[in-house]
Amino acid sequence: MTAPARTLRIAARPGPFVCRADEAALVLIDMQRDFIEPGGFGESLGNDVSLLAPAVPAAARLLRWARAQGLLVVHTRESHAPDLSDCPPAKRLRGAPRQRIGDAGPMGRILVRGEPGNAIVDALAPLAGEWQIDKPGKGAFHATALGERLAARGIRQLILGGVTTEVCVQTTMREANDRGYECLLVDEATASYFPDFKQATLSMLVAQGGIVGWVGGLEQVLAAGA
Ligand code: C5J
């Protein structure tokens, strides 16, 4: 006889998110030095990277919770191959950044796989056995094996955090929703260089009865399964 699935009921918008622990993964999107620390991609685009700092300790608490609950943990990194063969000109040549993707910066080449700036911040360093997905696009399903690997593991629900809310986090959540995943985004564990964009994103994800998914507060998540 198989044991009944362990469920965690999380108070959220637009209604409770009932997490089935055996079918759920925590996905932390792009919590990398390139976005969060000075001298990386985020700052090269003219952003104030200090706006992302509060998401780091919040994501660390979420990560500890997910590990304690035995959830699969997935870390993504936005990154490109050293020869930039996976970086289309439409991405590399956009805008007028101080340094473009692939240029040398204080933390190594901007947004290039394996460079110091491309690493996940120390406070969220992946443990052995946690998945690390390098993604060339904004969505974590685009040009990666994430979808196939999640399907093989029987994952049906994603709990999301990461940066930035309206770019890679939202894109991934929409990709996941279209692929049939139930998704919960954790408010304090995500951040944007544009606080208004973060709030607008949270609102649009849960509008119309949760058209894309759920949004929950960190304390509500941590209270589930405590
Ligand atoms: C951006 C991301 N903002 N990880 N990437 O270019 O959101």
Can I get a quick summary?
The chain is α/β, with parallel strands linked by helices and 226 residues long.
Give a structural overview.
By secondary structure, this protein is α/β, with parallel strands linked by helices. It has helices at 33-36, 41-44, 55-69, 89-92, 146-153, 165-178, 195-210, 218-223; strands spanning 7-10, 17-20, 24-29, 72-78, 104-105, 108-109, 131-135, 157-163, 182-191, 214-216. The protein has eight helices and ten strands. It has a six-stranded parallel β-sheet, sandwiched between helices. A two-stranded antiparallel sheet has the order 1-2. It is globular and about 55 Å long. The two termini are 27 Å apart. The relative contact order is 0.21. The model has no long low-confidence stretch (mean pLDDT 97). Bound molecules: dicarbonimidic diamide. Dicarbonimidic diamide binds next to α6.
- Portion in beta strands: 15-25%
| Number of H/I helices | 8
How many strands appear in the DSSP assignment? 10
Main sheet makeup:
6 strands, parallel
Question: What kind of oligomer do you see?
Answer: single chain
Helix coverage percent of residues?
Answer: 25-40%
Tell me the series of helices and strands, N- to C-terminal: EEEHHHEHEEEHEHEHEH
Residue stretches low in confidence (pLDDT < 50, at least 5 long) are none
Structural class: alpha/beta
Mean pLDDT: 97
What global shape is seen?
globular
User: Which small compounds were modeled alongside the protein?
Assistant: dicarbonimidic diamide
Major sheet strand order: 7-4-3-8-9-10
What is the radius of gyration computed over CA atoms, rounded to a whole number of angstroms?
A: 17 Å
Termini separation (Å)? 27 Å
